[in-house]
Design a protein that fits this description.
The chain is α/β, with parallel strands linked by helices and 448 residues long. The protein has two domains: 252 residues, 3-Layer(aba) Sandwich (Aldehyde Dehydrogenase, Chain A, domain 1), CATH 3.40.605; 172 residues, Aldehyde Dehydrogenase, Chain A, domain 2 (3-Layer(aba) Sandwich). The protein is built from 14 helices and 17 strands. Strands 11-12-13-10-9-14-15 form a seven-stranded mixed sheet, with helices on both faces. A six-stranded mixed sheet has the order 6-5-4-7-8-16, sandwiched between helices. Strand 12, helix 12 and strand 13 form a beta-alpha-beta unit. The longest helix is centred in the first third of the chain and has 20 residues. The termini are far apart. It binds 7-thionicotinamide-adenine-dinucleotide phosphate. 7-thionicotinamide-adenine-dinucleotide phosphate binds next to helix 7 and helix 8.
Length: 448
């Protein structure tokens, strides 16, 4: 695969894609490694993961620079992403000794449960957050005693390949964590059909996620899905409007909008609609779009020319837009659209720096509009009324909500969607359940 720097369009390298036979071989080796990896004493598995985290920490800058070149991420985001891999490894390095079962009272004997690993886990990672999404899958999977084969997106394999080297350097045995650059239709699809892959952890588009889910049915293969979002940012009239307007652009334009959590539907109470837009416009125009390697840059380019064309196809008659640098690079400006709810941009995941704004009259209408989507990943609610905040947070159908904030991701709290945004939870204490199977043993105890 020919890789280009999205901010310059310069060629940065070629990464060969795995064939079907190479994919099968990687899965075979991961299966072979599973028997001994699951038998590694929990404390030793924990130590290896901690050492892996230390090595990632020592290479944060290198990993971040790789992501700037390969994916066009801003350097400040890319450093956060590399540190997130470190933190997730650190967090789940606490898991191996704590994956305890239960002892359940029964007559005539003992009943106890085990949280057993599944086997080979196939991770399929998209191009928008190559490092964090890799870490969210591989860390809990390895901690629970599974082995992992990871297929990065074709366009963004570099940081995953480097992470695999760091894993080996940390002492992970061969075959425990393998990165396999390959095409979705070949390597990714083989993860789904190969009987030795016991679980798929997929992040990407809802369309591909549905196909993978159907494919997994054939073998009743375990599955975690993190899919798209069309996330509402709901601003009530009693909110701190200055803060809500100052933060709204970053809630959708971060990573150039290529974020499943992007708050791309802005719902504003009608009584403050004009005032809010007057505050929003300078905030949008003030987003610093530029060379991603510079510390002050807040938004970089899109991933590819084709993706920029797709994003542009949603925009017709913008209300206002920010600016982009001249010259090469896949740039698209921060864009605000006004919507009456009938346009594609209101309903579909644009996955670019485009936000649609629409007024609502009261709480009931805000909830109804927020829920008028097949997606349900994240949402923000802005109000100073604590009771309303709780009511609306409970009524909006989303897996990850924030009140007077846009924060969606902490490595120690659960993350994931409802409705067609996904299945299962990543991060936090919940993720381990997705990488283990509860097994129950009854042992008869004879009377003396
Ligand atoms: P997808 O096609 O869903 O790609 C995501 C990952 O799945 C990539 O690694 C891809 O490999 C792989 N894949 C593709 N087809 C597959 C198959 N049949 N079996 C197994 N794996 C397969 O997403 P995309 O085309 O890159 O982006 C399209 C749209 O999806 C975006 O515009 C955005 O709306 C959405 N998207 C959402 C997310 C999140 S975080 N929810 C992330 C990325 C994209 P290749 O690289 O070889 O295609």
């Amino acid at each position: 695969m020919r890789l280009v720097d999205p901010s310059t369009e310069d060629f940065i390298g070629d990464v060969p894609l795995a064939s079907l036979a190479e994919t099968d071989e990687a899965i075979r080796r991961a299966h072979e490694a599973f028997g001994s990896w699951r038998a590694v004493a929990p404390g030793d598995r924990a130590r290896l993961l901690r050492r892996f985290a230390v090595l990632v920490d020592e290479h944060v800058e290198e990993l971040a620079q790789l992501e700037v070149r390969n994916a066009g991420h801003t350097i400040s985001n890319a450093r956060w992403e590399a540190r997130n891999v470190r933190d997730v490894l650190d967090y789940y390095s606490g898991a191996p000794e704590r994956l305890v079962g239960r002892q359940i009272p029964v007559p005539g004997g003992l009943d106890f449960t085990f949280a057993e690993p599944l086997g080979v886990v196939g991770l399929i990672v998209p191009w928008n957050f190559p490092m964090p999404i890799a870490g969210w899958g591989l860390a809990p999977a390895l901690a629970a005693g599974n082995t992992v084969v990871l297929k990065p997106a074709e366009a963004t394999p570099l940081t995953a390949l480097r992470l695999a080297e760091l894993g080996l350097e940390a002492g992970l045995p061969e075959g425990v964590f393998t990165v396999l650059p390959g095409a979705g239709s070949i390597a990714g699809q083989r993860f789904v059909t190969h009987p030795l892959v016991r679980k798929i952890c997929f992040t990407g588009s809802t369309a591909v996620g549905k196909r993978i889910m159907a494919g997994c049915a054939d073998q009743v293969k375990r599955l975690t899905l993190e899919l798209g979002g069309k996330n509402p940012n709901i601003i009530f009239a009693d909110a701190d409007l200055e803060r809500a307007a100052a933060t709204a652009p970053y809630a959708v334009f971060d990573n150039a909008g290529q974020d499943c959590c992007a708050r791309s539907r802005l719902l504003v109470q009608a009584s403050v609609y004009d005032k809010f837009l007057a505050l929003l416009e300078p905030a949008v125009r003030g987003v610093r779009v530029g060379q991603p390697g510079l510390d002050e840059t807040e938004m970089g380019p899109l991933i590819s020319a084709a993706h920029r064309d797709k994003v542009a196809s949603y925009v017709d008659d913008p209300l206002f837009q920010g600016t982009v640098p001249e010259g090469p690079g896949f740039w698209y400006p921060p864009t605000v659209l006004e919507s009456a709810g009938r346009d594609r941009a209101w309903h579909e995941e644009v996955f670019g720096p485009v936000v649609s704004v629409r007024p609502f009259t009261d709480e009931a209408e805000a909830v109804e509009l927020a829920n008028d989507t097949e997606y349900g990943l994240s949402a923000s609610v802005w109000t100073r009324d604590a009771s309303r905040a709780v009511r609306v947070a409970r009524a909006v159908q989303a897996g990850t909500l924030s009140v007077n904030s846009h924060s969606s991701v902490r490595y120690w709290t659960p993350f994931g969607g409802v409705k067609q945004s996904g299945l299962g939870r990543e991060l936090g204490p919940d993720a381990l359940a997705g990488f283990t199977e509860v097994r129950n043993v009854f042992m008869s105890v004879e009377e003396a």
